[in-house]
């Protein structure tokens, strides 16, 4: 019944939904990116329509090899839920926060909690699982509190820890001393991080590097998506359900919710400031940055996983659509208002997520913890030996993946316009000074004024047929000079 109701809803608001999904005119495209250029957001670059690639970005000056070509701030974005254990970052700009000690201590604490939870689950389920699981539980050496580390290292066992052979356990009081700041690691003052700022609304899920980031997030989207006492959302229980569902299924739903919340909050603010009645044209004005992104329904454009039989593709895509539908119902339960109904239709939700599927860039920020241990390793011999008396145990406790960086997904207004080539002239590359979630593109060869900027969406060192197969997931066949030449050679 609900799906039928949504079809009726989409029919009722067909005109508004169509206006959101309409392809922007050439004039609208030039006007929007012209505004960005005048605001200094894309100096030395131009956005123009191409003959067969849609929009493209072109150099408005000569660039030298290794020169910065683009610094693009994300419109919306979120850290991957699974990455939050390893990286404590600002929820708005994604720079690392706190201190080296807090980063290490928090990570050790959370990994310890996760291991204890898994161990307890194994102990509870021991009588209902196979003998292989029993062996794992018996080798875990649980104490009365359920603490322990599995000795076995098998990827098939849900209760084993993949780092158990490379990690050592530290006493809880040592980890606590890192968390509360009573233990200072040698030379950590050389790697200062911004102070942790709490969410304005009082939730315990989002933290920031500055008051300005906390305020920007609150005003932009978080005030509707906050579970704290100061939240503007109408139903916090439904919001918690939405967040849990996104965390357990696909955290791209968090980013889609940011888009919808951003538009709603802008409309509310405009109505308050201008004392005007609701006007759909205002929605289109605020939707403009996302109107520029290439869109398809998520369930139609998501790549078919390798382990899904092609004969099951229809079922797979229906399951993806059902997943989006469930997510949307939770979100509507949390923030729905009648006048914003078209924004919360399944068709718009699916196109927003599909836009991310086709245009998003991985959000990556290098870890200062990695920099810290590299610094220790590069110290003069005597100083290194002295420092490692303290730091070695922490490095061993972190394990082989101590350098895990911040990872997430984001949508960037300019990066999303950059087309693919298997012979790119730019690459996404974070320099030493790039310590937040901005997209950074660097020239990998000299670029002449008027030349189109290209990146590679895939690993370009693969053979032609493999590249084409991967690029088909993006909905096009590459016809760059290299592909045409290799295609000709293979004929």
Supply database-style keywords.
mainly alpha; 46% helix; 491 residues; single chain; globular; 12 strands; 17 helices
Commentary on this structure:
Keywords: Metal-binding, Zinc, Zinc-finger. One of its GO terms (molecular function) is zinc ion binding. Pfam families: SET, zf-MYND. This is SET domain-containing protein. The protein is mainly α. The protein folds into 2 domains: 229 residues, no CATH class; 117 residues, no CATH class. The chain contains 17 helices and 12 strands. It is globular and about 70 Å long. It starts with a helix and ends with a helix.
Strand-helix topology:
Blueprint (H helix, E strand, L loop, with lengths): L1 H11 L1 H8 L4 H13 L6 E5 L5 E5 L8 E5 L3 E4 L20 H26 L5 H8 L33 H8 L17 E2 L8 E2 L2 H15 L10 H13 L3 H23 L5 H12 L6 H4 L11 H23 L10 H14 L1 E5 L2 H10 L3 H18 L7 E6 L7 E2 L5 E3 L10 E5 L10 E2 L8 H8 L9 H10 L1
Parallel strand pairs: 9-12
Antiparallel strand pairs: 1-2, 3-11, 4-8, 5-6, 7-8, 10-11
Share of β-strand residues:
5-15%
Can you write the helix and strand succession as a string? HHHEEEEHHHEEHHHHHHHEHHEEEEEHH
SS-based structural class?
mainly alpha
Widest beta sheet: strand line-up: 3-11-10
GO molecular function: methyltransferase activity; zinc ion binding
Keywords: Metal-binding, Zinc, Zinc-finger
Pfam families: SET (PF00856), zf-MYND (PF01753)
Organism: Picea sitchensis (Sitka spruce)
């Amino acid at each position: 019944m609900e799906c039928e109701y949504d079809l009726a809803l989409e029919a009722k608001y067909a005109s508004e939904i169509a206006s959101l999904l309409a392809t922007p005119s050439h004039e609208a495209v030039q006007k929007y990116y012209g505004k960005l250029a005048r605001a200094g957001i894309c100096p030395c670059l131009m956005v123009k329509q191409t003959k067969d690639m849609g929009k493209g970005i072109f150099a408005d000056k000569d660039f030298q090899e290794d020169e910065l070509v683009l610094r693009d701030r994300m419109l919306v974005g979120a850290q991957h839920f699974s990455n939050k254990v390893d990286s404590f970052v600002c929820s708005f700009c994604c720079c690392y926060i706190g201190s080296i000690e807090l980063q290490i201590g928090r990570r050790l604490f959370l990994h310890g909690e996760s291991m204890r939870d898994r161990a307890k689950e194994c102990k509870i389920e021991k009588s209902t699982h196979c003998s292989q699981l029993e062996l794992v539980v018996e080798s875990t050496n649980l104490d009365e509190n359920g603490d322990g580390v599995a000795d076995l290292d098998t990827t098939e066992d849900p209760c084993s820890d993949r780092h158990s052979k490379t990690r050592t356990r530290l006493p809880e009081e040592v980890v606590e001393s890192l968390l509360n700041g009573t233990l200072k690691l040698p030379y950590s003052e050389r790697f200062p991080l911004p102070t942790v700022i709490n969410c304005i609304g009082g939730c315990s899920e989002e933290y920031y590097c500055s008051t300005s980031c906390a305020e920007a997030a609150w005003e932009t989207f978080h005030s509707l998506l906050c579970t704290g006492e100061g939240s503007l959302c109408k139903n916090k229980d439904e919001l918690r359900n939405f967040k849990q569902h996104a965390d357990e299924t696909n955290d791209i739903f968090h980013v889609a919710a940011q888009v919808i919340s951003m538009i709603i909050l802008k409309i509310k603010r405009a109505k308050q400031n201008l004392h005007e009645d609701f006007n759909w044209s205002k929605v289109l004005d605020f939707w403009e940055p996302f109107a520029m992104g290439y869109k398809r329904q998520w369930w139609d454009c998501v790549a078919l996983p390798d382990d899904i039989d092609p004969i099951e593709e229809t079922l797979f895509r229906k399951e993806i659509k059902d997943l989006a539908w469930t997510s949307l119902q939770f979100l509507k339960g949390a923030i729905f208002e009648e006048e914003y109904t078209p924004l919360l239709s399944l068709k718009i939700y699916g196109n927003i997520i599909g836009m991310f599927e086709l245009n998003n860039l991985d959000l990556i920020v290098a870890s200062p913890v990695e920099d810290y241990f590299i610094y220790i390793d590069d110290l003069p011999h005597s100083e290194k030996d002295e420092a490692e008396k303290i730091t070695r145990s922490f490095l061993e406790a972190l394990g082989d993946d101590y350098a895990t960086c911040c990872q997430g997904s984001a949508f960037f207004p300019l990066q999303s316009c950059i087309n693919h080539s298997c012979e790119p002239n730019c690459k996404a590359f974070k320099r030493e000074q790039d310590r937040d979630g901005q997209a950074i593109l660097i020239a990998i060869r000299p670029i002449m004024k008027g030349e189109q900027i290209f990146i590679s969406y895939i690993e370009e060192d693969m053979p032609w047929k493999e590249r084409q197969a991967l690029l088909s997931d993006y909905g096009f066949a590459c016809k760059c000079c290299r592909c045409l030449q290799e295609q000709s050679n293979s004929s």
